[in-house]
Amino acid sequence: MAMADTQLHRLFLFVTLLAAAAVSSVSGARSVPAEPPSAYEMLEKFGFPKGILPVGVTGYKLRRSDGAFQVFMDRDCEFEVDGGYRLTYQRTISGRVAGGSIRDLRGVSVKMFFVNWGIDQVLMVDADHLMFYVGPISQAFTTDNFLESPECRGCRGSDGGQSAGGGSAVAAI
């Protein structure tokens, strides 16, 4: 009889340990998931400084399989940059991102020679320089210009009104 009691006791301990492990794994599954990274943090993961996006991003979508993305803002955004250029960000910005490269960019333009030109590509040339392409024209800027996200001035919300403005900085996506 004593041997049967010992085996029964071991079986009971084994079942208890299995149950405890199952409860532990289920309770772990119920833990609060980590918040996804912000659009600014994602830019940094792809090797870009966060300051190429202005303040005011409300969300983004990223398809990891091919790098296609959309960035959403609550309104259009305009600001002046060094050299007297005016950058405009539309409410939705899209393109494809890979390490150090943004291609097929839509929704960002720069006013030069009285015409708005779409910025269609941004490349990290090296750790200290970004290259912006407007069609066949390109311009390099140091990454120091993009450490902080600029605040928009002259922004148009859905009601067409103007928002209060913030400082100026060199930025583009």
TrEMBL record:
Keyword Signal carried by entry: yes
UniProt keyword Signal present: yes
Signal peptide stretch: 1-28
Keywords: Signal
Protein name in UniProt: DUF538 family protein
